[in-house]
Amino acid sequence: MGSLTRKGHSFDRTSSGRLTPMDTADFLHTLDREGRLLAAAAEAAGTDAKVPTCPEWQVRDLLRHIGAVHRWAAGFVADGLTAPHPLDDAPDLNGAELVDWYRDSHRLLVDTLAAAPADVECWTFLPAPSPLAFWARRQAHETTVHRYDAEAARGGTASPIAPDFAVDGIDELLRGFHARSRSRMRTEEPRVLRVRALNAGADAVWTVRLTAEPPVTERAANGEAAAELSGPAEELYLALWNRRAVPSVSGDRSLAALWQEKGGI
């Protein structure tokens, strides 16, 4: 992975606390590391283990899901597909064979993204500087969240998530996923929700305006908010993906409950 060139960008934070572009190569390094950690945790837990962060799943379900997603994403980039298509079914494997299949799926995705030209054209579903930047970023976050799931199934201490990466994931969730028409984060009367990462610089704050339409989010602390969700970036990132409780809630706690009920994607 050390030879990856820099293509596209998202966000990183300098020592001064200001955000600067984070290269696609950085996301590929994260994707590579997180997928390896996921496979190791799944192997240690065993494919029959329950996934406490996704109570309806066992580790086998987690591996089949994320492996199929990896192959689905790789297909768009490798084949230059410009229209959406459904995921293929995962093979009916279990145990060590399933872990190996996941490792192959992950390696296929990483190698495909690393080899792709910067100007590759293919389908995406969120705004991004380029399709390659989109898929590297999206799969890095997808894999990180599910790595946390695999480590929860294994037990013990979870691997850390860098604050800058967590901030980027919060931004993708709030200003990407929840800007789409399918977002269920809506209120009958207009409400304002603030989200603030406490260890990631002064600009790691979002104002989410809730109405009967999809939320409108700006990267700033503008105006009064009915409630604020806050905490260290890593904990807030996992909370907004409904993997753990929100570290701190001030104001109207019903908005935190609304997020827990409707914030899933």
Largest sheet: 5 strands, mixed
Backbone shape: globular
- Strand order of the biggest β-sheet: 5-4-3-6-7
Radius of gyration: 18 Å
Which structural class should the secondary elements be placed in? alpha+beta
- N-to-C SSE string, H for helix and E for strand: EEHHHHHEEEEHEH
Task: Please report the total strand number as a whole number.
Answer: 7
Termini Cα gap: 31 Å
Tally of alpha and pi helices? 7
Whole-number mean pLDDT: 91
Instruction: Determine the strand fraction and express it as a percent band.
Output: 5-15%
Q: Which runs of at least 5 residues are low in confidence (pLDDT < 50)? A: 1-21
Percentage of helical residues? 40-55%
